[in-house]
Amino acid sequence: MSATHAFTEYVQPQMGRVFTALGLDIEYERAEGNTLYHRDDQGELVPVLDLMGGYGSLILGHNHPEIVAHAKELLDQQRPVHAQFSLRGEAGRLGAALSDVVRRETGIKEPYLATFGNSGAEAVEAAVKHAELVRVTRAAALAEEVGAHLEAAGDALRRGTATVDPDAYQLPALQGQITPAAGVEALLAAVGAHNAAALATKPLFLALERSFHGKLVGSVQLTYNAGFRAPFQNLGTRVRFVPMDRPELLDRIAEDERVVLLDAELADGRVRIVERDFPALTAFLVEPVQGEGGIHALTAEQGRAIRLFCNKVGTALIIDEVQSGMGRCGAFLASSLIGLRGDYYTLSKSLGGGLAKVSAMLVRRSLYQGEFDLIHSSTFAMDDFSSAIGRKVVEMLEADDGQVYRQVTERGERLLEMLADLKSAYPDVIEDIRGKGLFLGVQLREQGEARSMVLRGSAYTGALGYLLSGYLLRQERIRIAPTGSAGNVLRIQPSARLTDQEIERLRGALDRLCRILRYEDTLHLVHPASDRTIPKPRAEIRDFRGAIEGYEQGAPRDITGPVRKVAFVNHLITPAHLRQVDPALADLSDAALRSFVLGMEPVKKAAPYPAVRIDSPLGSAVEFALYPLMVGSEQMGRYLASGDVAGIRADVEERVQAARADGCEVAGLGMYTSIVTNNCTSLNVPGIALTSGNALTVAMGVRAMERGARDRGFEVADATLAVVGAAGNIASVYSQLFAEKLGKIVLVGSRRDGSARRLRNTVHGIYQECWARIAAGGELTGIPARLAEEPLIAKWLADGASAEGAGDADRGKEIAAYLEERYGTDPFLTVAQDTDALREAQLVLCASNSPEPFLTGEHFAQDAVVCDIAVPNNAVPDLAEQRPDLAYMLGGIVATPNGEGLHPSARAFLEAGQLFACMAETALMGLAGIDRHYSYGNISRQQVIDIAALADAHGLRLADYKSAHSV
């Protein structure tokens, strides 16, 4: 079983697919220093420069020889791992070493006590629990003291040996709640009720914006990224997040969150009710250098403000050094570099030397609560192996008067100098360089306004950094990852053993990456995320900044009505259309593009296109925007064939929700997005009108066929119509409309399961609509006129039957049965499962939802009019070349009122000033102010007639049809 399959199937299905999509699907088999090794497709060992450093866990590098030798020695000694409920000597020695280092570096004389765990998040949980235990203990002592005071005061008041100071009734907590006339007991009851509510106050934690303190139940509440926190926000901790650069807000927060108990002071025969501050704030958590939040370092001024605030309100300061500590920033504690001292420290990552899973929570001895020994524990904590490795790491960091710290500082300065050179060379690409020591971040400029849709889309989804990581890994053999909550910041965390050669290697790679971003040559980013067995078509970096047309609409026209926002959820017709979407991809083969699109399965959403404003001659306007999905027709067809549509429906629903959040009042679905959602009916997005666009698609298709017949010089009434995909609702309504115009229709199915049954239903629907036309009276044409001559119909009319009378719901089925019985075969409607039947028809409508074209020149009669409304088309791309005698048109295309067109990269088969009919219906709903679902579920003949009239009124008309594909 391959590593990719095993990991994706049995460990992390979603991340496994994401790794594959971005080219990060590698299994490493060896590591040393700053290098990881994996096997390529030929089985050759490939070295990769690792600058992720285990997210800061490898300050001494992979498999440092001295640490490995020590680990082997420990294992050879058969040191116990599980010796719980005993004196753990190695843990004690590690605790002492950590306390000594912290005291040396901070100048604090008081010792620190250690609680060990297995990960940084566990250390944070331990600190949070201990700080809350301290708060609860203080709160209980205060409550007991206040209770005793109130009891004594109450006794004195009841005996008459004391009176209440009148100022008591003016306290904010009592003012308006009680008056002197209410008496002593009422006063004491009010004080008791207030204190009971105060004691029930849920504790508060403070953390900085952009913070990351872990993903466990407690620590995730302290992590700023809502994507990590929101699903679990009901599980507990109350947290307020503070901007790092707004220390002046701290006093306001303290005032907002202040809780007081009411105490009694008894002196000289008078009882005064006074306020006592209640400890509602448990702790303030800070990272000296924020890692996941984008590499932001606290300044000395900010640290001082936080420390003074904690002293002022009497709360604990927990300094999270899990990632920034253990030498990462040039000192054992990054906080010591700005003079910040904590009541608690959390340590992990590099403490394990790259081999052991170990963490430590350090707390000042004066704060330590003895009962914590029993109420907090871990089976795997304090073992001899991890403790001894941790102590070895501390010894190595402290050796030679802190030589490693000096080395980190020097290497960091050299790395920072190189990165600053790149920033000077590419100010349009690199926005900032931040960090300390060997904990650096390269912030790239946002790509949300890039002309390349690949760059815009990756920025929109927050995947830009990951896409760049795939390029660096596969093309440059350098391993870098973005920070977890700032996807445009590349995190660089090498070991202290970083060499000048490795720095220069990084310089070259980042220089090439910056040129790729500057020139928007996204081929180099997409190729690693495609089928890598297909050779990269070119190595040079080309300038594509002018390859994508701008999108200027000019000054808006004067209108008298409202401007509404509408959205259309589209998808790629074929992966090859990516060449139009992003010209830099033109050299990639169809197979490579297909591989890329298929790989994007876990991250389908893409950035909305710039909106086009469409103005109606009636005075209203819409801003029409595409909300794309990175998925092709092939995948859509596969979802339908397998019945596994839940995922794609959720993706479509997310796009509609995004459109609603952006202020859109209407969302249209088209192509397969309408099919996989059962013509919108499977979606549940209140507050926005939905449409599949099917009604206008039918209306424009009918007009296109009529125009084609006129251009060919024959009358529609004299022709036979063949309908491909006739089992579908769209084709069924087409047939109903054409039944009034001609005398014979051939209905062609797909041979799929249930197709024959659905075709019979189409026949019944057509005849049901014909009966409705007959029963309504008036002039009849086409098949209804022929049916009216049949004895059965004459009898129904003589009996007074109507289209809406009781028992008339099955008239269509009865007519079909009657015709077959009387004539042997139906003289008007022919049902076929074979496309050879198309040769009987002068008019052919193609409306199958096949993901691939399947109709060629041999399927059609001489000089036939072929209207292909399917997207993707049912006819092969070169049909017009195969059969120049045919009038082949893409019938569902609408011309906008004033030539308004989509963004050039989004037009597919369209020309400037054109929309697909399903898109046009979406725009039309906005122009007409339709705020209800329209083509929702199955459409009716009347809906088609109504929407066609509305389109005429608002200037939307059938576009000049094309006789060939345009892409």
Query: What about the largest sheet?
Result: 7 strands, mixed
Strand arrangement, major sheet: 4-15-14-13-10-6-7
Q: Could you tell me how far the N terminus lies from the C terminus, measured between alpha carbons in angstroms?
A: 42 Å
Helical/strand content category: alpha/beta
Count of helical regions: 30
State the shape: globular
Q: Helix content range of the residues, please? A: 25-40%
Number of DSSP E strands? 34
Q: Which stretches are poorly predicted, pLDDT < 50 over at least 5 residues?
A: none
Radius of gyration: 37 Å
Beta-sheet strand percentage? 15-25%
Question: What would you note in describing this structure?
Answer:
By secondary structure, this protein is an alpha/beta fold. The protein is built from 30 helices and 34 strands. Strands 4-15-14-13-10-6-7 form a seven-stranded mixed β-sheet, sandwiched between helices. A six-stranded parallel β-sheet has the order 28-27-26-29-30-31, covered by helices on one side. A hairpin with a 5-residue loop joins strand 2 and strand 3. Helix 5 (89-106) packs parallel to helix 12. The mean pLDDT is 92.
State the main characteristics.
single chain, 967 residues, alpha/beta, six-stranded parallel sheet
